[in-house]
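Before the break, one more example. Copy the sequence into your notebook; we will annotate it together after we see the structure.
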Amino acid sequence: MKKNGIQGYLFTLPVIMLIAVFSLWPILQSFVYTFFDYKLNDQQKSGLYISERFNFDMFQESQMYVKLFLEEDRPSITDVSDQNKVDQLIQRIETVENEFIGKKGVQKINGTEKEKILSLYDEINATVSDLTQKYQLPNGENLTLIMQDLKNSIIPSNFIGLKGYKEILSDKRMGTALINTIIFTIISVFFEFILGLLLALIMNKAISGQGLIRTTSLIPWAIPTAVAALMWGYLYDGSSGIVANFFQNIGLVDDSRELLLSISGAMFSTILADVWKTTPYMALLLLAGLQNIPLSLYEASSIDGANKIQTFFRITLPLLKPSILVALLFRTLDAFRVFDLIYVLTGGGPGGGTETLSIYGYKVMFAQTNFGYGSVIVMVMFVIVAIIATIYVKVLGTNLMEKN
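Here is what the structure looks like once it is written out:
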């Protein structure tokens, strides 16, 4: 018995490893990022630094330019004592440089090394400030700028703990993105479920051309989302879009350009495109559940005198409950994480009117290269998705394997 248990674990080990590598590890990595002010566009925050570090590459490059500029500006210095100061400073820089030969990248430094670097910086800063006040140095402005890079070689810890989570609680843009995501998810999933159920009931009927109907209905779902978004973008175009002009002609909108240029119009447009795209997917999941309901139950209800409405609510819906759970769960989670449709169709605009959590997280992480705060947004999404999944299981059934 014990041997069989070990063999069972060995069989499941590859699956566990795949889940750990492709699912758990990215989540864990994102969770770690949330505790750091991690920004790729800032040299002092481009890594995860719990303790203070030193960028030896930046230091070597900065001191090289300081020596070069000082040597170029030396002929402009007329006072002999000031010339001696420059020579002594260059020699001092070379002395410190020799002490750090062989060290590269970002490494830890001890207190003595840090003291030498700070002392050198103060000495260079004092000398350069004195010379720029006395003389018109050709590289005076460049020396002032390069001094900042020299000081930035010392990298402080960017560990911030829970500050990112505290910041997100007061982030108004985050609140707007969350509301947009909830509105998009609730409305789109509601209409997809109603229309998908009707479509599944039609496809489940034994009618002529049933195969053609099923194949045709799945075409929108088979189209790549980015392609579908581009297609709907042309249809919504205010000047030549068929859908935009049709809505204007029937009085649904006052101006055809409002579909993508107003907040309400853009949200309506994205929801309509998503309903058209994913209703067949919802229908496909519900159709699988309908086909698992025994026909004998419908025959028995017919003999007992039940009408179609009673049959639907007493037999079809209760037995379809597990399939409804799966369909709603998958579609709700997918809609809550929507990215490609909105990104291609509206880009989150106008004015952030269609910016969802995924769009906001993408902009923070890749447009601003702020991976620390972007990871906080991702973790908030992860928690909300987990809550949604728990609610669905609790409301519609805690065990999908159980049959009503």
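DSSP finds 19 helices and three strands in the chain. The longest strand covers residues 53-55. Try to locate both features in your own notes.
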